[in-house]
Amino acid sequence: MRIAVDAMGGDHAPRVVVEGAVRAARELPTTEVILVGRTPKIEPLLREFSDRTGRVRIEHAASVVHMGDSPVEALRRKGDTSIGRCAELAKAGEADAILSAGNTGAAVAAAALAMGTLKGIRKPGIAAPFPTMTGGQCVVIDVGANVKPKPEHLLDYGIMATEYVAAILGTPNPSVGLLNVGAEDAKGNELVKETHALFRASHLNFAGNVEGRDIFKGEVDAVVCDGFVGNVLLKVAEGVAEAVLGTIRNALMEKLIYRIGAGLCRPAFRRLGGELNSSAYGGAQLLGINGICIISHGSADSKAISNAIRVATELSDKHVNDRIVETARKLKSKTQAETVSA
Amino acid sequence: MRIAVDAMGGDHAPRVVVEGAVRAARELPTTEVILVGRTPKIEPLLREFSDRTGRVRIEHAASVVHMGDSPVEALRRKGDTSIGRCAELAKAGEADAILSAGNTGAAVAAAALAMGTLKGIRKPGIAAPFPTMTGGQCVVIDVGANVKPKPEHLLDYGIMATEYVAAILGTPNPSVGLLNVGAEDAKGNELVKETHALFRASHLNFAGNVEGRDIFKGEVDAVVCDGFVGNVLLKVAEGVAEAVLGTIRNALMEKLIYRIGAGLCRPAFRRLGGELNSSAYGGAQLLGINGICIISHGSADSKAISNAIRVATELSDKHVNDRIVETARKLKSKTQAETVSA
Fold it and tell me: Using CA atoms in the order A163, A167, A169, A173, what is the torsion angle rounded to 10 degrees?
């Protein structure tokens, strides 16, 4: 598996990206990493983190799409950007996957344009794993690729989530819930009502409507929603987790006795930090494109980057895209057969 | 101020509702509480919590809208429900406010139907306060009254949030953000793009687009969104807070040394529990109706109920509804004047 990594994307780029890439190459014996970006910036870091695998190389790209840039405009205007070059490498067949912790919109636009969508899939969506209270994960799709989807796009997300969860998390026949404002079938706006009917008729393992709270309960494997709602959800979840942990941290610094108590609990807090931290999952995946595109968090550390490269390797090894195409084909031929026999 | 309280609504009703009502009457010398529901259930509790103010009375209602019931259908079919009777008391001028910790949809439907909307306001919305990292609050409206609003409904929410925050939290000229998937003006779906233009032209203290994370940063006083997104947001925030605190609790029970450490920190944890707990705010408010309707959380305890009654008293004392009508009138006459002069 060859992965083109946007070395310039993310709050701590290029340092943590190069470090994560070197670590991934060491841990994944069949993975080749192409670090894309400004060679003079990347080269000294690659020496510093001393890659000995010979499977990490640099591909120069002169400019960078920054976090605040308008994605499509920046891709056009700036010319040779690191994320744009990653996508070109994939298009040219020189990379099987791309990875960026930079501007999400730019990564989505570049990947979708260069790779195209999978056969039978109408729109790509971003799948993001959330930790659950039962120690597992719940994958939410879409967290921001498509803010105005149609019901059939959400059905495609259900297919993609099913195959992603089955392959990457090893869950047989994963359950998929539809995010709504209540559990009853008749709830919600027009989009979810129409989507509900599509899912009911679909033969996916449909868990019915679920509410925002259910994502964290561990009772459903995947949750489907439109990209506007999903993006708000993702950022609210991050905001609440930060606020709760920050408030606890401040409260425990107030008195000496609390600081002593917190000191005794430090290993537990440290482990928790790891569990709640998104770095364990490496990032979100843009599913539905004819290739692999991982979108890491802007705050990704080197561990998150190397985990993201590991996930890309698994997506490739387990042929998730082939499975998505096959399931979409089966679903559609079933629906057609039923329409004909009806 | 006379408030009709749905004594049968909520996970711990009628016990905590009666307890909260008695406490509120003791603390608020001008407030009269009418406990609405099954007299044989309420009477013994009222004796147990020994009201000595003489300002708590019972109004019998034979049936209850349960949490799982379809709101409008249940209100019709069940006849004399506790929440329906609360709304009737308000309609008849026998109560200035109503309060329920039961089925939210039923409370919204009953209140909107019986009280009607305020002059100049097109749709009511539910405003919910969220604690921020800076120790303040951010009010989000709408968290579920209207899952398919138009841009002008969201503008009305902005007016309502402004006057609510100014009156209840004492913030002069509160800032109002529009919930979106990014800070740039051009982001989002059609609804938020059109709403953005309305807010820009409005003379409200518009903070522009905000993201889900910003709600908890304390940089904006109120956030406006559609009821579908707001309801998901509310439940995700609750789910994450529960999951984080639950995970911490479990981790701190694992070893004796952690339990000792956690024991030293107990007063800090207890205070935090209070800060993060929604009971401090009493509940959400249905704003935009010609009256006062407080919707408490299903898990409300007696403290949450008495706080909700206190908030209802403040909404009444500070004439929030008059202020909303006045601001809506000014905004519309300004817009008309500008249209004429243009």
Answer: 50
CATH number for the domain formed by residue range(s) B122-287: 3.40.718.10
Tokens describing residue A134: 């039962």
Q: How far apart are CA B35 and CA B22, in angstroms?
A: 10
**Tell me, which fold does domain B1-117+288-319 have in CATH?**
Isopropylmalate Dehydrogenase (3.40.718)
* Full-model pTM: 0.88
Residue ranges of chain A with per-residue pLDDT less than 50: 342
Whether A1-121+288-342 shares its CATH topology with A126-241+278-283 is answered: yes
Q: Which tens digits make up the pLDDT trace of A312-329?
A: 999 999 999 999 999 999
- Put simply, the chain B residues between 38 and 97 with a CB less than 8 A from any chain A CB are 68, 70
Interface ipTM: 0.85
Q: Which of B181, B191, B209, B250 is the best mutation test for A, with the most CBs of A within 10 A?
A: B181
Which residues in chain A have their CB less than 8 angstroms from residue B248's CB?
A: 248, 269, 272
A-interface mutation test, from B216, B217, B238, B257, most A Cβ less than 10 A away:
B216
Class of domain A126-241+278-283: alpha beta
CATH class of the domain at A1-121+288-342: alpha beta
- Amino acid in the structure at residue B334: K
Crossing angle of the two packed helices A151-164 and A190-200, in degrees rounded to 10: 50
